[in-house]
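[Discussion] Sanity-checking designs against the backbone

I'm trying to build intuition for which residues belong where. Below is a C-alpha cell string of 202 positions. I'd appreciate it if someone posts a full sequence so I can compare it with mine line by line.
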C-alpha cells in the first residue's frame, strides 16, 4: 500500500475527479449534482454526499454478509482511487467510523468516464457489531481521489432475519467488470483481525 501511495503521488497530474454510484443496496439518491448549495458538487460533502437518511431502506441479512455494488467511473479522473466501505448505526448515524471493508485500490483503464461495476459479494459486519432484527444502519462508500479529497455516498439498510426480504444478489446486479482492477481487498471477517487496520474513530 505504501508503494502504491508513492506511485500515485508520482503520477499525480492535474485535477482528478471521481464519482461513485451505489447500485446495491439502493443508495440514498442521486448526488451527482452541482448547485448553489454544493458549488463543488454534492458528492464531496461528508458524510453522505449531501443527502440525509431516507425511508428507502434495503433489507440486510442480520447474520452478516450482504453485497455491496457500485460504479466508480462517473465523470472524469477515476483511473486510480482508493475506496473505503464503512457502517453507521442507527436511524441517523452519529458517525461512520466502523470499517466494513478496509481501504482498497481501484484501477481503471482510463481517466475518462467509464462504465463498469465492482461488487463485493460478502461484506460482513464490523467486528463486535451485533444488530437485532429491525435495527437500522447506513453503509457509506468513500472514494478518495489522488489529490486527497474524497467523495461520499450512502445506502440505508434495515437488518432482517428473513432472507426472502433481501433483494436477490444476481449476476445482473452484482458483478465485476473485467477492465476494473480491484487490489488489496481485505474484507473484515467477524472472527478475524485485519493486519494493520484497527477500529478507529475520527
Ligand atoms: C428505493 O429503492 C428501490 C430499490 O430498492 C429503488 O428502485 C427506488 O428507486 C428507490 N426509491 C427512491 C425514492 O429512491
Ligand atoms: C460511533 O457510533 C457507534 C454506534 O452508535 C458508537 O458505539 C461509537 O461510540 C461512536 N463513536 C464515536 C467516536 O462517536
Ligand atoms: C469482485 O472482486 C472482488 C475483489 O477481488 C472480490 O472480492 C469479489 O468477490 C468479486 N465479485 C464477484 C461478484 O465475483
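Best answer:
Here's mine. Compare freely.
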Amino acid at each position: 500500500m505504501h508503494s502504491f501511495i508513492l506511485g500515485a503521488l508520482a503520477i499525480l497530474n492535474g485535477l482528478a475527479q471521481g464519482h461513485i454510484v451505489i447500485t446495491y443496496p439502493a443508495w440514498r439518491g442521486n448526488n451527482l449534482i452541482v448547485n448553489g448549495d454544493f458549488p463543488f458538487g454534492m458528492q464531496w460533502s461528508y458524510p453522505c454526499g449531501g443527502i440525509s437518511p431516507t425511508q428507502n431502506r434495503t433489507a440486510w441479512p442480520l447474520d452478516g454478509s450482504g453485497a455491496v455494488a457500485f460504479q466508480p467511473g462517473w465523470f472524469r479522473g477515476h483511473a486510480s482511487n482508493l475506496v473505503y466501505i464503512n457502517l453507521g448505526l442507527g436511524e441517523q448515524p452519529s458517525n461512520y467510523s466502523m470499517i466494513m471493508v478496509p481501504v482498497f485500490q481501484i484501477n481503471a483503464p482510463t481517466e475518462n468516464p467509464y462504465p463498469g461495476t465492482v461488487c463485493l459479494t460478502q461484506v460482513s459486519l464490523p467486528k463486535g457489531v451485533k444488530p437485532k432484527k429491525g435495527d437500522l444502519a447506513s453503509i457509506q462508500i468513500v472514494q478518495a481521489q489522488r489529490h486527497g479529497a474524497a467523495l461520499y455516498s450512502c445506502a440505508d439498510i434495515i437488518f432482517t432475519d428473513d432472507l426472502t426480504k433481501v433483494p436477490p444478489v444476481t449476476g445482473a446486479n452484482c458483478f465485476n467488470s473485467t477492465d476494473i482492477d480491484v487490489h488489496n481487498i481485505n474484507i473484515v471477517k467477524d472472527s478475524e483481525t485485519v493486519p494493520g487496520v484497527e477500529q478507529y474513530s475520527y
